[in-house]
Amino acid sequence: xxxxxQNSEALNIQEGKTATLTCNYTNYSPAYLxxxxxxxxxxxxxxxxxxxxxxxxxxxxxxxxxxxxxxQSLFHITASQPADSATYLCxxxxxxxxxxxxxxxxxxxxxxP
Amino acid sequence: EAxxxxxxxxxxxxxxxxxxxxxxxxxxxxxxxxxxxxxxxGPKLLIQFQNxxxxxxxxxxxxxxxxxxxKGVDSTxxxxxxxxEDSAVYLCASSSLTGTASYEQYFGPGTRLTVT
Lengths: 113, 116
What we know:
The complex is a heterodimer of chains A (113) and B (116).
Chain A: E1 3-6, E2 10-14, E3 19-26, E4 32-38, E5 45-51, E6 56-59, E7 62-67, E8 72-77, E9 86-93, E10 101-103, E11 107-112
Parallel strand pairs in A: 2-11
Antiparallel strand pairs in A: 1-3, 3-8, 4-5, 4-9, 6-7, 7-8, 9-10, 9-11
Chain B: E1 5-7, E2 10-13, E3 19-24, E4 31-37, E5 44-50, E6 53-56, E7 65-68, E8 75-79, E9 88-95, E10 106-107, E11 111-115
């Protein structure tokens, strides 16, 4: 059966360090993968998209990698700040052209000052 | 630009009652989604509309859930009758198909439903 796993439910990182979140999937062949941020009581907010033919994408302090052989994406936040504390969701995009997303369960990241 | 609007923000009902949620997407967005997010889980797609047609409703419990998008703009999601396991946040999202789009979905704040 299809499964999307995000490394852990919760991750605590010291301020200034790099936070690395993992998204692993099985029995999927996504055309692209997205990362979203969700704060308590709010809807997810889009951060980055990476397509199946791309290895790495960067946006400011964020970096995403996508390895279709390992069926894994890594999401990095460098120079982490307490304001980066939130739940981060990975979402796999359908290759059937209908924009359907399947979300992982999320990782709750806390940056400790 | 105004974001995705949802109402109500909170709703408490008893099991077997009915409830309806409303969503107004970002102006001009052709695609509208309803997701269910149970506490501690990621959003699960219930139904996807393209304009006023249904693209995907494979995970919608059709015996109790229904949704419509009249005139291809606003949408309502209804649950009748509600069960305890329907307690969740119901998120509405919209997106715009614009050629080489990022497929970014814009989410509303959600409606938190508690069924007692």
